[in-house]
């Protein structure tokens, strides 16, 4: 029997066309095209729900929460959900939903790098692949997945690695979960780490600051002056920051701001290794939390979910520390 799949559209290049002289912009044909796409009708019974029609740089954590709430409700009536999204922030929205959704039904993000006006457009193939993955019973319980370019990736692992290529979505640390072949959907493995933070609210009062050489503390100070609850620092390498940034980090900690250290490298964990002033071991001793292998943009969203759920710095600190100690365990 054909699976019943809901496609939720949010916008992005997959729903855009070239419109001179404005460039590539959203248009309103996409939903109608999906409803009448013959190849989709052959593989599943499709319904389409338009959540938004925005470029994904316009996506916000609050809209991600609203999208998650919609998916939670709709998933009760469907075998699987496909979400079309812009590629620019797709990995963030997919991760937020992965963290907070309770449903174990397949939830699959897909997108396109090429608009509907370009040669060799990738959108239709990606949508067909995503619907096939959403209809596979083996996709249940794997968390939110991303299907692009015939590959299946876990939301926590995947990143957009190239600004123009169609094979841009890659999981640099862990590799893909599976592939979409012409005759079947194949899984090689399940996600290694699967975090869950069930919450109905988030707190957007979290900043992300990326380290560059010679940086001082002005961004940290500005965040603290704005009253943030937490700052994620994308530090160098194993989790080290410039000496000139240390005084403002220490004052932020003294004011009760949670500081989480991540690495600006593409892969790898932060570790309390270097003991010099500004090194990871020094920062940990000063009260910063080492953020493991999670990269800055996703750690920022995770803290928004944690503050939405607990709104208690000490509880969140303990949560993050115990999580680091149980790295690799499935948390639900
Ligand atoms: N700027 C577009 C977006 O993220 C890029 C894309 O979808 O590929 O909405």
Rg, Å, rounded: 21 Å
Small ligands present:
aspartic acid
| Regions with little confidence, pLDDT below 50 for 5+ residues | none
Strand order of the largest sheet: 4-1-5-6-7-8-11-12
CATH topology of the largest domain: Rossmann fold
Largest sheet: number of strands, sense, barrel closure: 8 strands, mixed
The helix-and-strand class reads alpha/beta
Average pLDDT across residues? 95
Specify the CATH homologous superfamily of the largest domain.
L-asparaginase, N-terminal domain
List how many beta strands DSSP finds.
16
How many domains is the backbone divided into? 2
Q: Give the percentage of residues in beta strands.
A: 15-25%
User: Helix amount, in percent?
Assistant: 25-40%
Straight-line N-to-C gap: 32 Å
- The best one-word shape is elongated
Indicate the CATH architecture of the largest domain: 3-Layer(aba) Sandwich
Give a structural overview.
The chain has two domains: about 5-185, 3-Layer(aba) Sandwich (Rossmann fold); about 205-325, Rossmann fold. About 30% of the residues lie in helices and about 20% in strands. The relative contact order is 0.11. The protein has ten helices and 16 strands. With about 325 residues, it is α/β, with parallel strands linked by helices. The mean pLDDT is about 95. The strands form four sheets. It has an eight-stranded mixed sheet. Strands 13-14-15-16 form a four-stranded parallel sheet, sandwiched between helices. Aspartic acid binds near residues 86, 87, 88 and 113.
Structure at a glance:
This protein has 332 residues and is of the alpha/beta class. Helix content is 30%, strand content 22%. The strands form 4 sheets. The chain has an 8-stranded mixed beta sheet. Strands 13-14-15-16 form a 4-stranded parallel beta sheet, sandwiched between helices.
